[in-house]
Each structure stands twice: as C-alpha cells, then as structure tokens.
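Kindly review this record before class:
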Amino acid sequence: MYIQALILITGLALLYIGSTLLVEGAASTAVLFAVRPVIIGLTIVSLATSAPELLVSLVAAIKGSQGISIGNILGSNAINISLVLGISAIIKPVHIAKQIIKTDIPYMIGVSLIFWILCLDSNISHLDGVVLISLLIVFLIYSIRTAKEKKDPLLVSDPLNVKTILKNILFICAGIIMLAYGANFVVQEAMEIAGKIGLSQTFIGISVVALGTSLPELATSAVAASKGQSDISVGNVVGSNLFNICLVMGIVGLFNPMRIDPDLHVFQFPFMAFICLTLGGIAYSRQKISKITGLMFILLFTAYIFISYLK
C-alpha cells in the first residue's frame, strides 16, 4: 500500500510540474508569435491534456470495457467544467474572452448535444466517428484561421529568437511527457484501489478514471489561472471537452465501434449537457467565473459524483 501511495504522489507531482512547464512554454510562444493565448489553450494545451483520455478510452474500448471508455469521456467533460473551472475560479476569478463566449463555448455546447444525439441509438458507429472527427477538423481550421491578432504591442513585446523558441519547445515537450506519465501513474493506482472495493465499471470510468485523466486539465488550468492566464485556463477546458468528444470518441468510433449503456441517457448525458449550458449562460451574462460561481461548480461536481454512485 505504501508503494501505491508513493506512485500516486509521484504522479501528482509530475502533473503539477508538467502543467507549469506547459503553461509557461505555451504562453511565451503565444507572445513571441503574436498568437492569442486562447488559441494555444484551445489547441496545443487541450490536445496535450486530452492525451490521457484518448489512451484510456481507446484501450478500454479495445479490451471490451465500454463502461470505462464512455464513462471516462462523460465524466471528464463534466469534471472539466465543474471541478477544473471551479477550482481555477476559487484560486483567482477567471475572465472569459469575448471570442470564447461568442464562438468557442457555443461550439462546445453544439458538439456535446450532437454527441448525445449520435449516442441515442446506444452505439458509437463508424459513421459517428466520421461525424465527430469532421467536427474537430472544422474547429481546428477555424482556430488556425483566427490565430493571428491584428497588431498589438502587448503581443510583440518580446524579441523573436531561436534560443527562446527552443526553450519553449523544450518546456512544452517536457510538460506533455510529464502530464502523460503523471496521469498514467494516478489512473493506474486509482483503478486498482477502486477495483478492490467493488465499484461498478461504469462508475469507475465516470469518477475515478475521469478524475484521474482530468488531473492534467485541473493542474494546467489552475496554474494558468494563478498566473493570470485566464484565456489558457478557459480555453484549455473548452478545447479539452471538444477533443474528448470529437477526437477520442471519434477515433473509438472509427477503429473500434462499441455499445453504450442506455442507462447513461438517464443522468450522465443530461448532466453533461446541463453543465455545458450552465457555463454558456454564466459566460454570456457575466463574462467571468467568480469565486462564488466557482464554489457553485464544485458543489455541482460533488452532487454529480454522489448521484452517479447511487445510479
């Protein structure tokens, strides 16, 4: 048991250090190339922090553990908003950029609803995979097209030099590697402990595995929020949710179509839609997530886990 605890602590340390390096490298790169930090958060950081979900869900689907595969995605997306943004806002109120409010959050809500509709037949098929991957491609094309800002002194304040670029690339790569290994350590030990106490496969996917694979998002967004990088913090969550659905479930559909438990339509899918719409409403009406709103999100997370356990 002591060895498991040590591995778990090591994993958490890797997540924190990795997220710090990733945010530092991403934010610095955004300034050097006059790219808005939100784009970095929506793409590079989101893809990196979604890697654990991709690996876990794909391996689980291949091994026939559909409950863990789909539960991991539904749980991760709910946790990203309720817990990740909740904790980030408590650390420091998170301001939401206008473009995220007008475009990115609505797109995330739309993709989440489309995903639910595609799953109403209790299957993720090859065609579903094509649809989800196509939605991701549209999002990436739009993100790349809007990556450059008009001239802004704040975005070109640092000189462009090879040494700084190489340092940023090193930070990003080291951060990604640490996040991947850290999440793997945490998930492995958490699954082993959860399995020993007799929890259901779906609940393990929704709670233990989803929480474990969401730790990179949590660490990255929390560090970004503490550094005042709200665009990376929010962009990471929105982008990660999109990658989780479109990339992870898209690849699962393309290479390993699977059945979905119809009971997930009773609470899990509705909650995912509800938490996305709640974020959209708060973003549109207040343009920020305050500490009180952050606390509300954390309470929603607690209720989500409790109800999932009862189900």
